[in-house]
Amino acid sequence: MRRVAVSLSDLDAAIDAESQGWLTRPNRKWSEIKVVYLRLQGWKCLFCESALPEVDHDSAALVAVAIDIDHFRPKNKCTIWPGRRPASVETNTMTVLAKGLRSGPAGGYPQLALDRLNYAVACKPCNSSFKGTYFPILGTPDATGSTDIAYLNQMEQPALLFPFGPHGDDPAQFLQFMGPLVTARNSIDDAAGTRAQVTIDLFELDTRESLLGERMALIERLWPALERRDEALVAGLCADTSRSGHIECQRAYVALYGQDRESARLLYEAALTYTRSKTPR
Ligand SMILES: [Zn+2]
After folding, report:
1. Which of 31, 98, 141, 212 could anchor a disulfide with 83, C-beta 3.0 to 4.6 Å?
2. What's the rounded Cα separation, in Å, for the pair 25 and 34?
């Protein structure tokens, strides 16, 4: 997960350039400005950082297949998050974690259905399979129908990180990578730790096969590039504009290579072993 720190004025300018008058049009549709979010997010899912297919504005069918709009605050209803799916964990710690949480208002946030600060693009699994209508919070659910995102964030304290826009979180403050594995930073306070862990658990960022496989494939490219000092390739893979996805994971791996080469080598070996185990013989 990566911060997309666009200001409100820059976002509005980009929206207006894409679809003039969209911000004040009564019958506006999200799909008309979806590409703005794709560009700002570098064609990556906001939550899992996997690469989204690059499509042009008119490829509506393809967009619909692979890329979802996420309303961060669900527009019609909020469902209580029951905790991490039991099949993925060996203990019931996560259920305990979920018990300490509340949920956004049962009727959702219809007032934010067309709010540009409540949008992001996400991959199908993150949006449909994992997030759905869950909106766990640490604070008090809004009962006023407010459209003030800063106020809502302060009162509700969303348990999920949302790294988009002027009120967005900086995931680097919450999450850390060791090779393909993501964990909550251990230097953060309890509330921040809960937010980090709920985000990892709800999206299963640490165990989804597809994400682990993609991150390990990138480590397999990075290690030899680092060894032969191919700085252009390394910089390209780790750039904000990179189409590879998983930028945070790659940057952490490059930093590890600089600090602890033996661990980086072991992670590379583990990635190779993993890939071989997945390759049909
Ligand atoms: Zn995703």
Report:
1. 98
2. 16
What Rg value do the Cα atoms of the chain yield, rounded? 19
Give which of 265, 162, 279, 275 is closest to 212, Cα–Cα.
275
CA of 34 to the centre of ligand 1 (A): 16
**pLDDT tens by residue, 115-132:** 999 999 999 999 999 999
Which tens digit of pLDDT belongs to each residue from 211-256? 999 999 999 999 999 999 999 999 999 998 888 899 999 999 999 9
Provide the mean pLDDT of the chain.
90
Residues 165-170, mean pLDDT to the nearest whole number: 94
Output the six-digit token pair for 266. Answer: 């072991």
Residue 262 backbone phi and psi in degrees, to 5: -65, -45
Instruction: Give me ligand 1 centre to Cα 122, in Å.
Output: 5
User: What is the DSSP secondary structure assignment for residue 131, as one 8-state letter?
Assistant: I
Distance 45 CA to ligand 1 centre (A): 5
Q: Residue written as tokens 């504005």?
A: 57
- Pairing of the two strands 67-71 and 119-123: antiparallel
| Residues with CB in 5 Å of ion ligand 1 | 45, 47-48, 123, 126
CB atoms within 10 A of CB 281: 3
Question: What's the gap in Å between 121 CA and the centre of ligand 1?
Answer: 9
Tens-place pLDDT, residues 128-154: 999 999 999 999 999 999 999 999 999
User: Are residues 199 and 172 in contact, defined by beta-carbon separation less than 8 angstroms?
Assistant: no
Rounded Cα gap, residues 180 and 188, in angstroms: 21
> Which structure tokens are listed for 273?
């072993």
pLDDT of residue 118: 95
pTM over 0.85: yes
Distance CA 73, CA 77 (A): 9
